[in-house]
């Protein structure tokens, strides 16, 4: 039978089963939808929007080209990507997923990178942000701020290792030869590129700002849809009994890896949605080291929810999704192993023994900056989201009227 025919049958059957499950279990669907909407409404949207808007402006003004020229000697030998990849990596770490995919796609659409370079770049720039790792996971779920150090170290070190491995992705592709004017220093050339980019974009700054806000909110609306969808899917596979079958497979794998089998449900949930998987891992009866290893894997794998967001963003380009998926499996393995390796020398010997004084993690002190920010987002995030959605509606109406006239 033709592969495409099989794919069509699988897709049609899967969507039909999900539709029937939504009809048969409306209460579970509504509860899961509310849970996903609440997370997007209060945390995801207000925390990502500022980074998205500022990044759009930096790209439009030419700052990214400036950074790219300056950091070309660093990024090209290490990761075989242009210097602009340093900006994508920094913003991906600061704002979290799917920022790395968004900015990689932006560079590809502007023809600043090739498709192969885009596949290398997106593989190690799509990661969790420090706010989520420290405030939500370490403090919110595990009630153990020191654990955030291990999770963050394993996560970001694993990300760099993935980038170093992915530099060998398509090694037969010839290296890009940078062309520079011999009479100009790298800093001078970077400033020239910055100025030329700003001049070539003839939009007034107000229009540039409005486009940045509109594009950022549009992307976040897509992100919200995927979060709600996969929250519902995660709930439904448990209701219809598929979760028990899949958990049995994962339980066997955990036993082979000498990990506690009771982490099967958290791991399964984390494969779909990282927030739920991390929370369930923290609530399990497994030893803390095993919980941390599974949580590290979940954070690195990103979950099918985030991967679907990345696939949607990359669909507008010729960057393939498959290398990104393989990189997520690789990152998950790196992060779990690094958690095991760093556990005794850092968590046991330094953090737990008190050999190193970290006032920021002292629970007797006032809330840390990350904890405070996370608390403020929970309290005011919904109002921030509502405010910018109103702005989005106004911008959309204005753009439609302008185009129609």
From TrEMBL:
The keyword Transmembrane helix applies. This is Sporulation protein. The chain crosses the membrane at residues 48-71, 83-101, 121-142, 286-304, 325-343, 373-397. InterPro entries: Gate_dom, Spore_IM_YlbJ. Keywords: Membrane, Transmembrane, Transmembrane helix. Residues 43-150 form the Nucleoside transporter/FeoB GTPase Gate domain. The keyword Transferase does not apply. It comes from Guptibacillus hwajinpoensis.
